Amino acid sequence: MRSMMDNLELLKSISKPSPAKIILLVIDGLGGLPSPETGKTELESAGTPNLDQLAAKSICGLIDPISPGITPGSVPGHLALFGYDPCIFNTGRGMVEAIGIGFDIQPGDVAARGNFCTVDEAGLITDRRAGRISTEKCVELCQLLDGLVIDKVKILVRPVREHRFIAVFRGRGLASDISDSDPQQLSVTPMSITALSPEAGMIAGLANQFVTQAKTILAGHHPANMILLRGFSKLPQFPTMSKVYKLKPAVIAGYPMYRGLASLVGMEIIETGASIEDEFMTLKQSYANYDFFLLHIK
Fold first, then answer.
1. Which residues contact 101 (CB under 8 A, 6 or more apart)?
2. What average pLDDT does the structure give for the chain?
């Protein structure tokens, strides 16, 4: 059986440029479970004449992006849609978010995705998203944490949107294979960050110290009085879509993470507004300049 790398090399050798245009429209999060009251999903309940018309003219089906029984996160799920085996080509959320907001990544940087969260007096998490604080509040809190130095490692903190931020660890000899502090559930304490390899012991200790200092700094800023970190990662090297598929690809997406992920596989980021109407107008204006578009709607 060919490996994914072999498959990409094969695709490079047989792919050819084409005058055709491709639009990969991803309506992220559209699916849902039936309502207990009606027994219908959101799509079954809503009026969707345009989607109905598209479906009637399309070949429809279901796919497992990774494998049956595995629910993929945003990064591996979208990599699979781009034609990259996420079991081979994968990266943590931190670096993807950092690239998505245009952060100046340096060689050796380790990035983590962060949430401002709420903890009670016992240190138990009561809200993983701190009530979805405003982006303006996030900017203010990030400024309080930005620039901390622990054992000669500088920690750069930047806002993403609402309660989300990135923390970039910059120093010598940093590994990225460490665990998350986010337990992704309520009524428990944030988890201690642990090394997943012998080389990662130093950054695990640094990350735990950063979390401890952040808790002290944020103590008076309820509901955003604590942080959760996950997706520690370094800058990966992926084959670009232009080399593999002979395409000139671009991404139109409102949320930074998806812009960052698309950028990792060589898509050019086209600036756009936040609404669905803005994204389709951007597509119309840019249509002549590219032959592959990822149009992502969150």
1. 158, 160, 166, 256, 260
2. 93
